[in-house]
Amino acid sequence: MGAEPEILRLAEPELSARAARIQFARVRAELRARLPAEAEIEHVGATAVPGCLGKGDLDIAVRVPSGCFAVCLAQLGQRYAGNPGSVRTTDFAAFIDEAADPPLGIQLVVLGSVLDVFVRFRHRLHAEPGLVVRYNALKRAHAGRCMAAYRAAKSDFIAAVLGHPPGDETAR
């Protein structure tokens, strides 16, 4: 028998955001101590956007100049597990800590690279409340359903918001 498909479960946004803010402050301090000074450590994802629905996890983007990527990759790899469900390139790597409360995802990305989309997307959601309404509708439509279908729809939504073609991997 195969594994059960992962299902999208939405968390209460205000409680999730509060827990994520507290954990972000702690993790940011830890990362500041481990990573080069050039690393930009940003709270991204649903918990970084007021009123945005999400899974209740904390997403952090670590944006670095290309010359710092290898050092940061090694440092993060010593502390966090690689995310097997995420793409890995020469300028992007994702890490997870499922035991953290809330669960933690860290996206290491080279500044200006094709996958450096997390902060831009957060800025768009902050600037355009109508996008949050549409994004929440997408999430509600996929709640309780297969995570793979949600991720594909989410990718297309982010790509459209940022001006990438639908199905573009840069939005995953």
From TrEMBL:
Gene3D superfamilies: Beta Polymerase, domain 2 (3.30.460.10). Coiled coil: none annotated. Pfam families: GrpB (PF04229). PANTHER family: GRPB DOMAIN PROTEIN (AFU_ORTHOLOGUE AFUA_1G01530) (PTHR34822), GRPB FAMILY PROTEIN (PTHR34822:SF1). This is GrpB family protein. It comes from Methylobacterium radiodurans. The lineage of its organism: Bacteria, Pseudomonadati, Pseudomonadota, Alphaproteobacteria, Hyphomicrobiales.
